[in-house]
Each structure stands twice: as structure tokens, then as C-alpha cells.
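Field reference: "sequence" (input) and "structure" (output). Example, Sensor domain-containing diguanylate cyclase:
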Amino acid sequence: MQRLLKDLFLLILLITTCLQFIKISKMRSHVQKLQKIKESLYEIAYKIVHTEDEEQLYNIVLGTSIKLISNASKGSILLLEEDGKFHFKTLVGYSEALKNICFSKEEIFISNRSSKESVIIKNPSKFDKKTLGEDKNQQLQLNNALDMACTISSPIYIDDELIGLINIDSTNSNKVFTEEDRMFMDYIKRDLELVIKNNYVQNKLKVIANHDELTGLINRRYFRYLFEKEVVNMKENNATLCVISIDINDFKLINDTYGHSVGDCALIEFSKVIKEKVGQDICARISGDEFVILLKNCSMEKSQEKINIIQNEIQKIKFGNLGLDFSYGIYCVNSEQGITVDEILARADREMYKNKRIFHCII
């Protein structure tokens, strides 16, 4: 009996020792993994600090996350934009065509969670099929974006406001994420979140610095910077540029008749039309009721067509008994002309003042 008890004691001691050894091994492995993550984050910190390209920055952030989480094979970063929707900022393992798809807050994985911690979603495609409409599911299906077996979704917050999320995906049903992976992702996210926050805040400050507060168009200083770059590109690529100088007719009359608040509304509506019709080209508010449009690789004829379209839309806008109209001047330049930015703008202004004199003669 005593021998049996002794053997039983030795067996329990052996099992306990084995369990302790396993526990210590797991802890050692956990610490080693954390150390590896820490070292990797230090390695990319220098790259991130010296990266001016926003897309490259987010690629580094996402690529690092996928590299450090076991069984991760794909991923994405989505950020909240001005339209109130979450848009793909960068993707790894997915088609760039997904950037044409956006999501409301209710359509993302973490919409109903108050916690700021990462969360594991098993079979995320099931969530998508249930939550998203048929059209979005079809787009995801066409771009092979519903083949995830498991996802870790990490919310990104700035001042308690959800501004984005990092999704890390596994496509192997035999290699789903564990609670340890989720904890590691939270550890990684805390450092990477600071980078994303910093970049997000910097972008907001750039928008404020480079755009007119009232109309949302770019301001004079930033227009000058972009214009100088386009002149260099024009010379290097044997291209053309057309500048359209614009001045609203009798804008003072709107202010004097209806007040400055209505005048502000007129400037906002005017700017909306210009921005919509110009599209990917450059338009800016230079000062007061003066605007400028820069059209790349556009002929005089095409520029005239565009300004006619804008004028037709502007003339539909009414403020009481007063309508909106403007005078304009177009000046086109090519790479063979040795002409400065100031000279181009001055010549466009001269054409605009010719048009302005015609307007005043008519009235």
C-alpha cells in the first residue's frame, strides 16, 4: 500500500513537473514572441518616420501586422472618410479593385462593440453575407474577398472616436487565430495605432493649411505650389496647361443687398459647381470672389467647352432677385514657351479683365 502511495505521489510530482515545464515553455515562447514583435516594431519605426508617402506608410503598418501574427496571410486597413463611410486605405493579398467599395459603420465587424480591444471573427464571410447587401457581397465575391476562414479586427480610435480598423485575415480553415494571437495584435496595434493617429492628425492639419475654410477649395498658397509642379511636369513631358482666371460679376451687389451670410452661401454654391465640373483637375479660391482653374493637357477649345458648361450651371443659381454669373479669361501654354508661373497667371488675368469689360458694357 505504501509503495502504491509512493508511486502515486511520484506520478503526481512528475505530472506537476511536466505541467510546470510546459507552462514555463509557453511563457518563454510568449516572451520570445513579444520580444520579436518589439524588435520588429523598432525596425520599422525608422522607415515610418522617414516615409512621406501616405500609401507606403499604411503598407508598412499592414505588412508588419501580417508578418508578426501567426497564420495571417492577408489584410486591410480601412479609414473613416468625410462621407461618413469606411474606405480601404491599403490591402495585402486582395485586389486593388476593393478600394471602390466602402462600408457604413453598421457594415463593419466591430460596429456593435464598445470595447477598443481586437476581436476574433470566425467565418467572417458569413457575417458579410448576413450584413451586407447582395450587390456588395457580389463585388466581394468577384474579387475573392470572401475566402477568409478567420479575421482579427482591431479598431483604431482617436480621442474615443472610431476612425478606422486593421483587419488581419487567415484563409486556412485549419489555422484559425487564437486568443494569444488576439493579445499579440492588441500589443502590435497599440504601437501602430500611434503612427496611424499621427498621420491622420497630420493629414487633417494639411487639409486645414491647404484649403479655403469657407468653400473647401484649395487656397492661393497651395495652388501656387501645385501649379509650379505642373509647369515642371509640362516641360518634362512636352504637355500643355490651360489656366482659367475667374471673377464673379457684381458679387458686391449680393453682399450689399442680402448681407455677407448670403454672400458666403453664393461662394459655397459657386465653388460646388466648379469642383464638380472640373473633376480631377485643379481649382482654387484665390481671394474674395476670385477663382482659378488649372486644366492639364487640355486644348483651348476643350477649355472653352468646360467653362461654358460651368457658366450654364452657375447661371441657374439665384439669390432672391439676383443671379450668379462670372467673367473669365483662358490662357493656354505649352512646353516650348519659356514663360514663368507669374506670367501665365498675369496673361490669364488680362483675358479675364477683357471679358469683364465686355460684361460691364453690356449692362
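The CA atoms of residues 24 and 55 lie 41 Å apart.
The mean pLDDT is 82.
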